[in-house]
């Protein structure tokens, strides 16, 4: 199950809520919220990896034979 969207603002709010719970001494709630944050962040990373895996062939064609940093520097300095 995924929560959509998991924006940077919602993740920051989740972090603040977790810190507030810890400050109040509610360790169980704080730990639960830290677990939720970890789950959401890991899910976002997993989705990114899946996207990259699905589009690897297409991306490979887009960057194949493009100049690397040294070649670009040489081209820039020569012209």
Brief rundown of the structure:
This protein is mostly helical.
Verbal overview:
The protein has one domain (8-78). It is built from four helices and no strands. It is elongated and about 65 Å long. It is mostly helical. Helix content is 78%, strand content 0%.
From the spread of the alpha carbons, the general shape counts as elongated
* Tally of contiguous helical segments: 4
- In helices, the fraction of residues equals over 70%
Which blocks of ≥5 consecutive residues have pLDDT under 50? none
Distance between the termini: 54 Å
Would you count the extended β strands for me? 0
Using only C-alpha atoms, the radius of gyration works out to: 21 Å
Largest sheet data: none
Question: Can you write the helix and strand succession as a string?
Answer: HHHH
Mean pLDDT across all residues, rounded? Answer: 85
Percentage of residues in DSSP E strands: under 5%
Q: Helices and strands: which structural class? A: mainly alpha
Total discrete domains = 1
């Amino acid at each position: 199950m995924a929560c959509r969207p998991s924006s940077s603002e919602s993740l920051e709010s989740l972090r603040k809520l977790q810190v507030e719970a810890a400050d109040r001494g509610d360790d169980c709630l704080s730990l639960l919220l830290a677990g939720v944050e970890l789950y959401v962040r890991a899910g976002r990373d997993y989705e990114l990896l899946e996207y990259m895996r699905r589009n690897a062939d297409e991306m490979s064609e887009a960057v194949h034979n493009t100049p690397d940093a040294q070649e670009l520097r040489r081209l820039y300095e020569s012209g």
